[in-house]
Amino acid sequence: MAQAARRPSPLPAGSQPVAAPASPLVGTWPHALSHEPMLRVSDVLGLVQRQFPTLTPSKLRFLDSHGLVSPQRTPSGYRQYSPADVERLRFVLRQQRDHYRPLTVIREQLDALDAGRLHEPVTLAEIGEAPDDYLTAAQVAVRGGVSGETLAELEQAGIVAPSVPGGYAAEVLPIVVAAAAYLRAGGDVRALRTLVLAARRESDRAEAHAAPLRRRSGGEAEAAAHEFGEASIAAFSAVVRHQVGG
User: Fold this and answer.
1) Is the entire prediction scored with pTM above 0.85?
2) CB 20 within 8 A of CB 59
């Protein structure tokens, strides 16, 4: 008996079938957007939750584990998303919310988009780069109490970084304020970078300490990481105060 022809996957709303490209496309859809990893999980949530309020870090991990939206990882294991990843995430969430499509069908659609067999319109506005989402360098400098030149030095030293081109997440402000106080007290950017790298290593240790707990309870893991971090801060503070006679 002849095998029944496989039914094509439903097309996403607004998508159009296209002829196979003359040469295979490189990478994943959307090909025209930047694939540079520059966004943390918190950045992605800030960009997307306004449109999809039920999005959570666990949902991002779930989509990653199923190969639908797979960001790059830092050496410490943190997920970092690109603007292309964010648009891919929006596509998946739209298919689930608006069309109730299962993951298997969405996976087929993404494969077709990756290969260029489908076309899905993409606009830069859809990746959330609205001015209100982030602070400009000038706003960060004013609110952080530093000059534009000092902010540029902090960025060059890797102490702060924009979350998207030309835009800073509000979470950098406490770091800039603390950096400004350190520099006013007589420190320099090179020494500050050493402190920042040490703090980041302690943060990595806190995450590693909490990692085994994440398999059982996210809340318990967060509490363990916070406790470890606070202990690190207390130890550092005690040593500095002792050495300076405080």
Assistant:
1) no
2) no
Residues 6+ apart with CB under 8 A from 224: 206, 209, 210, 213
Which pair of structure tokens corresponds to residue 59? 């949902």
* CATH T-level fold of 16-127: Multidrug-efflux Transporter Regulator; Chain: A; Domain 2 (1.10.1660)
**Structural domain spans, the chain:** 16-127, 132-243
| Digit-coded pLDDT (tens) for 42-61 | 888 888 888 888 899 999 99
Q: What amino acid is encoded at 51 in this protein?
A: Q
User: How confident is the model over 82-101, as pLDDT tens digits?
Assistant: 888 989 999 999 999 988 89
User: Nearest-CA neighbor of 34 among 161, 163, 170, 134?
Assistant: 163
Q: Classify domain 132-243 by CATH number.
A: 1.10.1660.10
